[in-house]
Design brief:
Blueprint (H helix, E strand, L loop, with lengths): L1 E7 L3 H17 L3 E7 L3 H4 L16 H8 L5 E5 L11 E5 L8 E5 L10 E3 L3 H10 L4 E3 L5 H7 L5 E5 H6 L8 E2 L14 E6 L3 H7 L5 H17 L7 E8 L2 E9 L5 E8 L2 H16 L2
Parallel strand pairs: 1-2, 1-3, 6-7, 6-8
Antiparallel strand pairs: 3-10, 4-10, 5-8, 5-9, 11-12, 12-13
């Protein structure tokens, strides 16, 4: 009987995701057992420093990826939005399970219920840029930490911004005061999607992960990651993109705040997601003066 070692962060949300992958694998392969390898990341340890200062969102994944590369684990499970745009050498995103709700949401008050000059907390430049476009009067305050800390912070602000999928997965979706339409608040690249990595040359593990792959989710994820890679961006860039398969074809919507703090928006419809992501990034980069 094979045992698959799954590397993950130790937060409740990260464990939920890893346990979901483990359960999906054992359902698909009854002879396989899974064990979690809990890894502490720099992003978890240093919650008092903005992510851009300590190396961007890669600080949530580097140690987990190293556990796979050095053989302590066979698989790594991430929130896809935490991954840098370029996959680390020696690894491959072997599976992208079906996407959950990609939307952002507010804990506290709905946006329309916040008084003039109220405060909203977020650590995301993308969210801050879109909030400024929606409500220029608001005071945007910094916030980092796990989901419990973010929800608790709502007591000190009018609202805090979180990923709806995170609360849904933790069984706390009812605590959202508002879910934004993805046309109104464009999500982070990969938001709501899990990314399951393994070593690039590990064909047997890649084969085991195959039943977890969801085609439409992968198509959208590849398009969004191509957008971010073409921008050369990370969490320090006020940009977002959301791709989905619609009756018209593959649609990708992107936003990017310009150097003049004007929010620029474009969308494309087509069939080649990676090419569309790159084209969208080029167009928005020109619009935004970046």
């Amino acid at each position: 009987m094979a045992t698959l070692r799954i590397a993950t962060r130790g937060s409740p949300l990260a464990r939920w995701q890893a346990e979901f992958v483990a359960a999906s694998l054992t359902d698909a392969h009854p002879g396989v057992e899974c064990e979690l390898v809990i890894v502490s990341t720099e992003g978890d340890r240093r919650t008092d420093v903005p992510l851009a200062v300590i190396g961007g969102k890669g600080v949530f994944v580097k140690e987990i990826q190293h556990a796979v590369l050095d053989g302590r684990a066979d698989v790594a499970v991430h929130s896809a939005k935490d991954l840098p745009a370029v996959t680390s050498e020696g690894l491959v995103i072997a599976a992208a399970p079906q996407r959950a709700d990609p939307a952002d949401g507010l804990v506290g008050r709905r946006l329309d219920d916040i008084a003039l000059g109220g405060s909203v907390a977020t650590g995301s430049q993308r969210r801050a840029a879109q909030l400024r476009a929606l409500r220029p009067d608001l005071e945007i305050r910094p916030l980092r930490g796990n989901m419990d800390r973010r929800i608790d912070a709502a007591r000190h602000h009018d609202a805090v911004v979180v990923a709806a999928a995170a609360l849904d997965r933790l069984g706390r979706g009812s605590e959202l005061a508002q879910r934004f339409d993805t046309e109104v608040m464009v999500p982070q690249v990969g938001q709501g999607t899990m990314a399951v990595e393994c070593r690039a040359g590990d064909a047997s593990t890649w084969e085991l992960l195959a039943p977890l792959e969801h085609g439409p989710t992968r198509t959208a994820l590849d398009a969004e990651r191509a957008f971010l890679q073409a921008l050369g961006g990370d969490c320090d860039l006020p940009a977002g993109a959301y791709a989905r398969i619609s009756p018209e074809g593959l649609t990708i919507l992107g936003v990017l705040e310009g150097v003049d703090r004007i929010l620029h928006r474009r969308s494309l419809v087509g069939s080649d997601g990676v090419a569309m992501g790159r084209e969208l990034a080029d167009a928005l980069g020109r619009d935004a003066g970046r």
